[in-house]
UniProtKB/TrEMBL annotation:
Family annotation (CDD domains): AKR_AKR5F1
Catalytic residues, chain numbering: 49 (proton donor)
This protein's name: Methylglyoxal reductase (NADPH-dependent)
Alphabetical list of Pfam families matching this protein: Aldo_ket_red (PF00248)
Signal peptide: none
Lineage of the species this protein comes from: Bacteria, Bacillati, Actinomycetota, Actinomycetes, Bifidobacteriales
Gene Ontology terms, MF aspect: prostaglandin F synthase activity
EC number(s) given by UniProt: 1.1.1.188
Binding site for substrate: 107
InterPro entries, A to Z: AKR (IPR020471), Aldo/ket_reductase_CS (IPR018170), NAD(P)_OxRdtase_dom_sf (IPR036812), NADP_OxRdtase_dom (IPR023210)
Length: 281
């Protein structure tokens, strides 16, 4: 497994399994076990997903050592603020059945995220978290936090796929030394991505699936990817992306697919901000 090195020196796998929208405990546990058996070592979840216990249970049954896996979770908006975030983290840690987490992210750039960031900073200093970061922070929010926080984020997890390629986000992240991680790398199946002619032609040329081409594209950009699947065959297919390279011409063709805006959730829409703030976990 290829890795990236975060700005604090911690190494992180460049590909992992995401378990968003996998609430069934048995299904989630089996998917994580299948991922471990296939060679995955990064698992990405969140308290809002309701499956931290399932991830922890799968790890306990895997036979792997704790330092062999990289576990990520996220603090939800309803638990933002210094004290609430520290309490939410301790609850998550208990659900995982672990002594520490490898990466904890603030799930949205809303509410009192500065208070929450101070909480993550203290937990990081205490050694309870190996790396801290954010999710869904657009360039201006990320730049502001980097300029004002005692410790800069190590990761920014954002929507990132061929239809929303986030060039400015990557530029800002590189400027501040923040690793970009892609959620929704397949655009959640939107805009007919599985019928996209450019991706189809490139896949045929390499004897690979379209999913493998999409993942390889982001990996070659230095972006960590966390594709979600609960099917063992897909999980195994998604990790089989380290034996080929996209050419400069192929990458240029994929670049033409960028729409410049989200195809999943518009964080600039005030209705979205309202809904995210109203959701409780």
């Amino acid at each position: 497994m290829e890795t990236v090195t975060l700005n604090n020196g911690v190494t992180m796998p460049i590909l992992g399994l995401g378990v968003f929208q996998v609430p069934d405990p048995q299904v989630c546990e089996q998917a994580v076990l299948d991922a471990f058996n296939a060679g995955y070592r990064l698992i990405d979840t969140a308290e809002a997903y309701g499956n931290e216990e399932s991830v922890g249970s799968a790890f306990a049954k895997s036979g792997l050592k704790r330092d062999e896996v990289f576990i990520t979770s996220k603090i939800w908006v309803s638990n933002f603020g210094y004290e609430r975030t520290k309490a939410a983290f301790e609850r998550s840690l208990k659900r995982f059945g672990m002594d520490y987490l490898d990466l904890v992210l603030l799930h949205q750039s809303l509410s009192d995220y500065y208070g929450s960031w101070r909480a993550l900073t203290d937990l990081y200093k205490e050694g309870k978290i190996r790396a801290i970061g954010v999710s869904n922070f657009y360039p201006e929010r990320l730049a502001d936090l980097c300029m004002n926080a005692e410790i800069k984020p190590m990761v920014n997890q954002i929507e990132n796929h061929p239809y929303f390629q986030r060039g400015t986000d990557l530029e800002v992240a590189q400027h501040f030394g923040v690793q970009v991680e892609a959620w929704g790398p397949f655009a959640e199946g939107g805009r007919g991505i599985w019928q996209e002619p450019i991706l189809t032609e490139i896949a045929v040329a390499h004897g690979k699936s379209m999913a493998q081409v999409i993942l390889r594209w982001n990996i070659q950009r230095g972006v960590v990817v966390i594709p979600k699947s609960t099917h063992r065959e897909r999980i195994e297919e998604n990790i089989d992306v380290f034996d080929f390279q996209l050419t400069d011409d192929e990458k240029a063709r994929i670049a033409t697919l960028d729409t410049g805006h989200s195809t999943i959730i518009d964080h600039h829409d005030w209705h979205v901000a309202e809904a995210l703030n109203q959701h409780r976990v």
